[in-house]
Write a structure and sequence with these properties.
heterodimer, A: 360 residues, alpha/beta, 8-stranded mixed β-sheet, 3-stranded antiparallel β-sheet, 8 helices, 15 strands, B: 69 residues, mainly alpha, 3 helices, 0% strand
Chain lengths: 360, 69
Amino acid sequence: MIPEAGGGGEPVFALFACCIPVKGARRSTLCDVQRGSFQFIPNGLYEILTEHAGKTAAEIKAAYDHEYDEEIDEYLEFLLRHEFGFWCDDPAKFPPLDLTWEAPERITNAILDVDARSDHDYARILAELDDLGCKALEVRCFHGCALAELRAILEAARYGRLRSIDLLVGDGPELTPEALADLAARHGRISSVVVHSAPEARRLPPSRTGVVVEYRTERIDSPSCCGKVHPGYFVVELETFAEGQRHNTCLNRKISVDARGEIRNCPSMARSFGNLRETSLHSALAHRDFAALWSINKDQIDICKDCEFRYLCTDCRAYLKDERDLYSKPSKCAYDPYTAEWRSPAERPAPAGIPKGAPE
Amino acid sequence: MEKDPEGLFARLSPEGQELSPVIYRHLHPRVTRATVLRMAESRPYRATGYVCGSFRKPISRCLGPDEPR
C-alpha cells in the first residue's frame, strides 16, 4: 500500500542502504548484507530500483506508460513485506553505503596445509602470520590426524593475534566428538571443525563454545579438492560484498603454506614464492607478483560478470575453465547465469532462499 | 526534530535496548515495523564497524554441498 504524503509531495520508495540489488543476465538478486540473506528479483524490478530510484510510484508507472501498473504495485508490496525498503519524503537523506574496502592487516587470512610427511615449524609460521596481522587461519590436514598434532598447532597460536581457526582434518581414532569438543573448549580461537573421510556424515549440535563439529564422508586428500563453488559457500555480508567490488574475494590478502612448506597465494596455485626453509612469509609477500591476482574482481571475470551471485561468491583463481586466461570462470562452478540454472540439483540454493510470493 | 517521536526506543526488546545507542530518525509519519527492526538490527554494526568484525568468509572451499543425513 502506498502511504499518504507526509506533508511535502508524494512519498517515494527507498531501499534500506543494506539491501543492494545486483543484476544478473537472466535475473537479479537483492542482497541484504545486514541480515545475511538474499532474494531473487526479476530484472524488471532491478531496473525500477536502480534507474527509477527516487521517483514516486506514480512517476515509475508513468515511465512505463502505465503498462505495468499492477506489477509495479506488486513489486513495491513485495519489497515492503520483506522489509527491503520503506516510504520516505526525502530519499536524499538516505545515501547508499560506501562500499570502499580497506583493512589494516597486510594479510587477513591464511591456509596451512599439513599431511603425514609435513615437518612445519608451527611456532615460526604462526609468529610470522601474527606479524602480518593475519586474523583467520584454516588448517587443512589431509591425513588422519592425531590430537597431539592439532594441539601443537593450536598451542603455537595460543598467544597470537588470530581471531579464528578453522580445522579441516582427516578422521582418526582419536578424533571423537568429546575430544574435539574438549579441544574447542581449550582453544577459544577455534571457530569450526570439519572431520573429513569419516565413515558417516553427521553434524553435532553446537556445544556451549558455539563451535560446530561436523563429520563428512568426503575425502579431502590434496589441495585439488578446493575451489568448489556452490551456494553453501556464498557469503552475504557487508565486508565480503564491499571487498568484492574491487578485489578478488578468495585471494585478496591471503597467504598459504602448502604441505611441503611452499609459500603460495593458495595451495592450489602452481606458482611458489619460495619454501619456508629458505625464505619467510614477509619476503614472499614482498615479491612483486605476490599481490598480482588480488585485484581480479568478479566484474572482470568472464561469465561471472553477468552473474547475480558475483558479490556473494568467493571465486577461485586456481581452477579455471580456460587455464590460459586469468579472467576465466572457475571450472568448478556449475552455475550458468544466462539460463539461471545449476548443472546439478544438489547445488541449487536451498528452497528457504527463495521467498514465498517473490515476484516472477 | 524530536529525538524519539514515536517512542521507538520503548518498542525495542529489552535486549535491543541494551545495545549501544543509535540516533533515531523519523523516517515517515507512518513508521513501519520494518523501520523499527532495521534500526534495532543496525546497532551492532554501528557499535563495531564492519572492518573490525570477525572473519566471515570461507578461507578454502573443499567441501561439496551438504550431504544427506
